Amino acid sequence: MIIDSAEVIVTSPDRNFVTLKLTTDDGLTGLGDATLNGRELAVVAYLKDHVVPLLLGRDAHRIEDTWQFLYRSAYWRRGPVTMAAIAAVDTALWDLKGKAAGMPVYQLLGGASRTGLLAYGHASGRDLPELFDSIRAHQAQGYKAIRVQTGVPGLKSIYGIASNATYEAMDGVRYDHEPAQRGSLPAEEDWDTRSYLRHVPTVFEAVRGEFGPELPLLHDAHHRLTPVQAAQLGKALEPYDLFWLEDVTPAENQEALRLVRRHTTTPLAIGEIFNTVWDYQQIIREQLIDYVRSAVTHTGGISHLKKVLDYAAQYQIKSGMHGPTDISPVGMAAALHLGLSVHNFGIQEYMRHGARTDQVFQQSFTWQDGLLHPGDRPGLGVELDLDEAGKYPYVQAYLPFNRLADGTVHDW
Ligand code: KDG
Ligand code: MG
């Protein structure tokens, strides 16, 4: 099974996606997701100029060897662009191996450890009535766990969601396909941490009052807090029994989490912007987190994220793979195969893609009773319709950024 051709496909049905397609001498095709939200074309160039020429003529069965070759031979290691490119190759090779074996990828990873994957969706609203409607609409769609984000009084944007997001109603659920907004400049949003810290516990008190104690609730602080503010928030939210509190502090400073941990037992999830096992070394060893947020797409592919999760398993830390709409259906399928197979699966983030995206990427996963399953087609179970993809050329889009009232740039 020799790699004959490697094509990088950019398409923007509801948002930008970058896909690597490998074709072998025996006519099999494998897909890998290389989408890096807001920096898509950097990965396209990395793949086209520096990776594709190295792949032609290689044995597609040698997944681990190819991974190590791409990682070590570049000399320059880690980083989101490199690791998204390597992830795409790795994922496409798993897809090929599955197709060659006539088995879904999860079977090659050791088989199913469960019957389906618990998934959470994103409920949001400018105020409580809108938030409650959004939670109910998610429940009606079958979601058994829900992330809660709301507007903060005095701030213009709904926190955690782009203010001008293209909302598209699907079965009554509003979807923010784009925190990344189309245009040549990132949108500016406003932020005030003290208002946020005062407001969020009141939201969770109201949600628990309305929806009761059972519903697993999650919240994302999107790197906006200092360690002591994160500790305050975790403590304030303890009565509402969160499934997790995500990205409380900027992830670069891992020691910050020691302080947070000393003050709260609210479970912590971190890592959607991490890209290697080395980013997790300290926070897993010191048990500073409870969930690993990395996506296959941004963490070197199925092979590398499995290593992270196996390491995490030694400390009873579970998976919580990143699954917003900027992970393509190919990246989502990879997450589902990995999640189904590892023992320490925790929860899967699942925001539905738009109708155009679903036409470009034909998928075979199922969503039933709040559980996802990757399906049993050989490989990943996703095929890319090139004609459909060709209808939607790349559109420049950036994630927003924040400024405080005095004009200081703040984490978004
Ligand atoms: O590309 C960035 C988005 O994926 C991010 O804003 C979404 O934080 C996010 C989440 O938890 O899904
Ligand atoms: Mg997040």
From TrEMBL:
GO terms for molecular function: magnesium ion binding; mannonate dehydratase activity. It holds the Pfam family MR_MLE_C. GO terms for biological process: amino acid catabolic process; carbohydrate catabolic process. Residues 128-267 form the Mandelate racemase/muconate lactonizing enzyme C-terminal domain. This is D-galactonate dehydratase family protein. It comes from Glycomyces terrestris.
